[in-house]
Design brief:
heterotrimer, A mainly alpha (about 350), B alpha+beta (about 200), C alpha/beta (about 725), B: 3-methyladenine DNA Glycosylase II, Chain A, domain 3, elongated, C: about 725 residues, alpha/beta, Rossmann fold, 17 strands, about 50% helix, about 10% strand
Chain lengths: ~350, ~200, ~725
């Protein structure tokens, strides 16, 4: 007979990192559904390609690094990275775009820094930004959302496959996103007012539902205690405040409405799925609020005055840099201490 | 003429600046004068104070003084890696592994023990001990005060009858603590076969 | 009536699993064949034994006295004989043994004379405190802090709130629950004694709302008193002292402080009960209520167990049949300790024995990388950042861990419980805390060592100065004499150069010793490398050669410096030592040469070299030379020893004779040993050895005789 010698506690809440990550994957389903509904099967195909590439790269690198492959693949972190990247790139993107982005995310952004838990930057967003600055044309070609332009049909399974693997004739298909459209025609109220893409039920046509779906998924994650409310709340609050201020107090023609900002582009995906990536975000509660708030601020600033129509990826990466500092300066007040610690300075 | 004048202005300005800064530095030197060399104190505080001499200096403080003057930080054998790291931190230098030429860091703390039956009372070890941790008199048996012994083993060499052993300091219930877990990919805990005691 | 309940940060809700053991009444565990009473069952110094092996003791008799202020006595749990006082396995994660008194019961269970006081208010408070100490009462919730220390209120301190901690928030444990249901009156009496001692403004009993029967019983028992039962919501770890104080009073105990600093004193239910028994019945703490639970236990429930009862025996009584137990936990599932020995005894803090099946408590899963999800930070009841502490502990940045308030961690296990990556966080913290403690101790030791070293240096300098002063005085006197005598005008220069060299000499000596050591180490390394056949032999050999050269140089420098000094200071004394050192050196050199030659030979043989014969010849020659020089050295050493002895003999013949006796004794012992060894191994030469022994015996007798004679002469 042998008895187990182990430190307390002797019981553990059921679950592991893999379970955590699977919950994130489940939460992306509504958004994925909406993207498929409005833009065809392209995104779904991207998700499949990206997942396969991510698993393959992860396994390869683990082999090179001499780590147990099954043990690490079981944590699903590579799949989450892949899915988030696939959700962010356009459905018409050619297959090699997904492969490059995904391989870069896993190999460079994740494993070169030491693998899961060690990467300072969100791997999915590193991959996304690499693609965005290397292949700007492919990365900004979106289809018109279903029902917006009756002359264009939403591609079915085969059409989507053809687009992904055989290339595309962008002129026939290309459509701008609401963020793009507003940026192009900012200050021209007559164009803005007549453009159907900007006038859905709440905000930009089609994109509003995609964002609402991601919001639902995010609420599910909070309910499941996979993420806390702090980062999304901070990020949405700052976008809300800034867009509200500029839209109402400054100039409605140059600064779009609150709803336009909240429900366009990657706002909700960013707020609930990307900014909340625990490895690269701040971890103290106060730190998380500030972290989220500053991501929202940067997003608004770049969207409004920067060169890109959307900016969640850049904002997240910039704030990843600040996360350790935020953590040091927002430590909670420990029981029995009058003041929380500030920074790493020795309190003498 | 104008050329000369310009030069004089430039020279004057430079001289004024030089004087100004000189005065400032002079003032600072007087005002913020540092007594002694606190860096030596700080270094000395990091050294393990075994006074073993394995670094080539007769004691820890001389090595601290050497370090302050730029000597290598990897000579302290009993301090080992931890001390080198602390020194690298304090002196803002790169970490370098221990210079094996000076010896190897023992895995456990050691303490000198005199096999008292064999001691001939020669007092050689007493003279060698930098800690005054050996008790005894000429032709009387000697013994080591274990609490004061730093394990420098300077007493071993001089002993003419080789009656001093360096033994590892035994672990007690008071000094024991948990090891670090085995890390990622390992299950915590270990199976321990049950001892049956009648 | 409702009282405000404050909340504390974090906390978890693990499955309760209390029903299994809470529904049967307390049973007596009975008398085992042997009781093992550890001398330390509390925080602080172990007790000092006051009985001897073979003594007959009666139930309640003191076995060990308190040894200091934070220390407690232990008592015999039953009558019987002290069988042994020796280290035995105890519950400690290190698996080390500790001193225990082992008692074989006589089965009669006869009490020592004892009596209680029903009207304790007539007693002096000091007397009550004394009785509590003498009864050996320690906090029975888990840590085991001597209760009397908490009860001794300083005169300038005012305690506002006395709290009885009846929360029992750990899953599975129901010992306090059952005790309250069945012996509520006695607990309240105990609490009143504590109240009498520390005179608080209010007395509260904190109970979790998952124990309705206990709440009812306590409400009934406190009806006639001003004690208030406060029900707190179920949340682990609300039974932690600091958490309970926060919940009931809203106050926080300062980090590093004690509850009394904020006017609160907290005692455990079992402790209050034990105090009542000690004061009103005069019984010391010799038994306690322990919950036996877990799916391996057939008769789950609470047992009144004599302290010192071996765990294995107790589990048998409760119907544990399986012989393939996988885990045995003393305490609860959140903070209990794994026991890996069935002979471990029940002690004052053993509130639960948990024997789960593998299905109940699966083996811990493998540790995954931390993803910094922060779930641990949400669960931490003291509001730490466990993910950062983990990081610092793992990378051994202990100063940062300390800065992030590692010391405030109560090791409740909530973070490990919720961690999705299954990281054994508590073990990391225990490791880090242990390392920090070790470092602090080492730092203290180093500071102490520095002081001693500096003191020694100062003393040496002073002595040297003294000598120097005297020498100069003598020189002056001599010079004056010389001048008087009008001797040769050319005076010798004073030997000051040598004296100043004292410091250098020490330096040289250290250098010589340390290079020698390094050389030896390198030699050792070389030997092992040769054994294992590593490739870098050449490099090692080179290193050895270099070091040897260095060592020789250092030694030579030292000896020359020393002899120089010796010549200057006292020429005749030093010459004696030189030849021996030279011989030693020669011997070592010759031996090294011999070994090197042997090495070369082996190599040559291995490579089928042509000149093996020449080499062989050389090896033989060198061996002979080495042996000769060794013998010479030995002879010189023996001579020197003899000389010393003779000197000694001249100065003190008794001592010399004594030494001679001792020497002969040693020789005799050696001879006997050799004989014995030869006999054991059936060697043929026993006869010769036998002769040796008898010769040695005779020599010893002669020496003893001589000693007697000398002693008589001197007497």
């Amino acid at each position: 007979m042998a008895l187990l010698s182990v430190t307390s506690p002797h019981i553990h809440k059921p679950g592991n990192t893999g379970g955590f990550m699977r919950q994130v994957l489940y939460a992306t389903l509504p958004g994925l559904f909406m993207l498929t509904y409005f833009f065809g099967f392209g995104t779904l195909i991207n998700v499949v390609i990206a997942s396969a590439v991510a698993m393959g790269c992860e396994a390869l690198i683990l082999k090179v690094r001499n780590k147990p492959i099954a043990f690490y693949l079981n944590d699903y972190s590579a799949v989450v990275t892949a899915v988030l990247l696939a959700l962010a790139i356009p459905p018409t993107a050619p297959w090699w775009l997904t492969v490059i982005g995904c391989a870069f995310a896993i190999v460079v952004a994740k494993h070169l820094y030491g693998g899961l838990g060690m990467n300072p930057f969100n791997p999915a967003m590193v991959g996304y930004v690499l693609l965005l600055i290397s292949f700007p044309k492919e990365m900004t070609t979106w289809l018109p959302a279903a029902g917006l332009d009756n002359s264009v049909n939403v591609p079915g399974v085969f059409e989507s496959l053809r687009l992904t693997f055989l290339g595309t004739n962008p002129d026939a298909l290309s459509g701008a996103t609401p963020l793009d459209t507003f940026k192009t025609y900012a200050g021209q109220p007559e164009v803005l007012d007549s453009n159907a893409i900007l006038h859905g039920t709440f905000a930009g046509y089609g994109w509003e539902w995609v964002n609402i779906a991601f919001l639902l998924g995010g609420v599910y994650l909070i309910w499941k205690k996979i993420i806390t409310w702090h980062i999304p709340a901070g990020m949405l609050l700052s976008i809300f405040l800034l867009s509200g201020f500029f839209n109402t107090a400054v100039d409605a023609d140059n600064y779009p409405s609150i709803m336009h900002h909240l429900l366009s582009g990657g706002t909700m995906l960013g707020a609930f799925f990307i900014a909340t990536d625990p490895v690269t975000a701040a971890t103290s509660n106060r730190g998380k609020i500030i972290y989220g708030f500053l991501i929202g601020l940067l997003t608004y600033v770049i969207r409004t005055w920067g060169g890109y129509p959307d900016a969640v990826a850049f904002s997240v990466l910039l704030m990843n840099l600040a996360a350790p500092t935020l953590d040091y300066y927002t430590q909670p007040r420990t029981y029995g201490h009058r003041q929380p610690n500030k920074g790493l300075a020795k309190p003498d | 003429m104008e050329f000369l004048f310009d030069n004089i202005t430039a020279l004057g300005a430079l001289t004024a600046i030089a004087l100004g800064f000189g005065a400032l530095l002079g003032f600072a030197a007087v005002k913020f004068k540092v007594d002694g060399n606190p860096i030596v104190e700080q270094i000395d505080a990091l050294l393990p104070q075994t006074q073993c001499g394995q670094c080539g200096h007769p004691g820890c403080r001389p090595y601290a003084e050497g370090l302050a003057e730029g000597e290598e930080i990897n000579k302290c054998v009993p301090g080992g890696e931890d001390t080198i790291r602390a020194l690298a931190d304090l002196l803002g230098r790169e970490f370098v592994p221990l210079d094996e030429e000076h010896g190897q860091t023992p895995e456990t703390k050691m303490v000198a023990v005199i096999r008292e039956a064999e001691c001939i009372g020669c007092t050689k070890c007493i003279q060698a001990c930098p800690m005054d941790a050996i008790l005894g008199a000429a032709k009387q048996m000697h013994t080591v005060i274990a609490d004061e012994c730093t394990g420098c083993d300077l007493c071993v060499e001089p002993c003419p009858v080789d009656c001093i052993d360096m033994l590892p300091v035994p672990e007690t219930l008071q000094t024991w603590h948990w090891d670090a877990p085995k890390g990622i990919g390992n299950r915590p805990g270990e199976l321990i076969p049950v001892r049956n005691i009648a | 009536m409702s009282r405000r309940i404050w909340d504390f940060h974090g906390g978890i809700h693990p499955p309760q699993n209390k029903k299994q053991s809470s529904e049967t009444s307390i049973r007596r565990a009975g008398l085992p064949e042997q009781l093992i009473v550890p001398l330390q069952q509390h925080i602080g110094a172990p007790g000092k034994p006051c009985v001897a092996v073979g003594d007959r003791v009666r139930k309640g008799q003191m076995l060990a006295r308190a040894n200091g202020f934070v220390s407690l006595p232990v008592h015999a749990p039953t009558s019987g004989t002290v069988q042994a006082i020796e280290p035995r396995p105890i519950q400690h994660p290190s698996g080390m043994d500790a001193l225990c008194v082992v008692i074989t019961p006589d089965g009669e269970d006869t009490w020592i004379e004892h009596s209680g006081v029903s009207d304790y208010s007539a007693l002096d408070k000091k007397e009550i405190l004394h009785r509590i100490r003498e009864a050996g009462i320690a906090g029975m919730g888990g840590a085991g802090f001597p209760s009397v220390v908490k009860l001794g209120v300083k005169p300038d301190q005012k305690i506002q709130t006395l709290i009885l901690n009846a929360v029992e928030c750990e899953p599975y444990i129901t010992a306090d629950d059952r005790l309250m249901r069945e012996r509520a009156d006695e607990i309240v009496q105990g609490l009143q004694i504590i109240g009498h001692l520390i005179t608080p403004d209010e007395i509260l009993i904190g109970i979790e709302d998952n124990k309705p029967h206990a709440i009812e019983a306590m409400n009934r028992a406190t009806q006639e008193t001003d004690i208030e039962v406060v029900v707190v919501p179920t949340k682990y770890p609300s039974g932690g002292e600091k958490q309970l104080i926060r919940m009931l009073t809203g106050k926080e105990v300062r980090s590093g402080g004690i509850p009394a600093d904020v006017g609160v004193v907290c005692h455990n239910t079992g402790t209050a009960y034990a105090i009542k028994r000690a004061i009103m019945d005069g019984e010391p703490l010799i038994s306690r209520i322990t919950t036996l639970t877990g799916d391996y236990v057939a008769d789950k429930g609470n047992y009144e167990v004599l302290l010192g009862t071996p765990v294995g025996w107790l589990l048998q009584q409760a119907g544990v049949k399986a012989t393939d137990l996988h885990r045995l936990i003393m305490g609860g599932p959140m903070m209990g300790f794994a026991v890996h020995n069935m002979a471990v005894p029940v002690v004052k803090t053993t509130n639960c024995l948990l024997v789960p099946t593998l299905e109940e408590f699966p083996d811990p899963a493998a540790e995954q990388p931390c993803i910094r999800c922060g779930t641990c930070a949400q669960a931490c009841p003291v509001n730490l950042l466990p993910q950062q502490l983990y990081w610092f502990a793992k990378t051994k940045e202990f100063d940062k861990a300390a800065h992030f308030n590692l010391a405030d961690c109560i090791e409740c296990g909530a973070c490990s419980y919720v961690c999705p990556s299954n990281i054994p966080l508590v073990q990391y913290y225990r490791f880090a805390k242990g390392e920090i403690r070790t470092q602090q101790q080492e730092q203290a030791k180093a500071d102490h060592a520095r002081q001693r070293f500096e003191a020694r240096q100062a003393r040496l300098a002073r002595e040297e100065e003294e000598k120097e002063r005297k020498r100069q005085e003598r020189a002056k006197a001599a010079a004056a004499k010389q001048a008087q005598k009008k001797a040769a005008p050319a005076e010798k220069p004073a030997p000051t150069a040598a004296i100043t060299g004292g410091d250098d000499l020490a330096k040289l000596q250290t250098a010589a010793a340390s290079t020698m050591k390094r050389y030896k180490e390198a030699q050792k390394a070389l030997a092992t490398a040769e054994k294992n056949g590593t490739d870098n032999l050449e490099a090692l050999q080179k290193k050895v050669a270099q070091l040897k050269e260095k060592a020789d140089q250092a030694k030579a420098a030292f000896t020359s410096a020393k002899s120089a000094q010796a010549e200057d200071a006292a020429p005749p004394a030093a010459t004696k030592e030189d030849p021996l050192a030279a011989l030693k050196q020669a011997s070592a050199d010759d031996f090294a040469a011999y070994k090197a030659a042997e090495q070369a030979l082996q190599e040559a043989q291995a490579n089928n070299g042509a000149d093996t014969q020449a080499l062989q010849q050389r090896v033989i020659e060198l061996k002979a030379k080495s042996d000769a020089s060794k013998a010479a050295m030995k002879a010189a050493r023996a001579r020197q020893k003899e000389e010393i002895q003779q000197q000694n003999a001249a100065s003190d013949p008794v001592k010399a004779a004594k030494m001679e006796v001792a020497k002969q004794q040693v020789l005799l012992k050696k001879a006997t040993k050799a004989l014995q060894a030869a006999k054991d191994s059936d060697a043929g030469a026993t006869d010769a050895l036998q002769e040796n022994v008898s010769a040695a015996e005779q020599a010893l007798q002669a020496a003893e005789h001589a000693l007697k004679k000398v002693e008589e002469e001197h007497a």
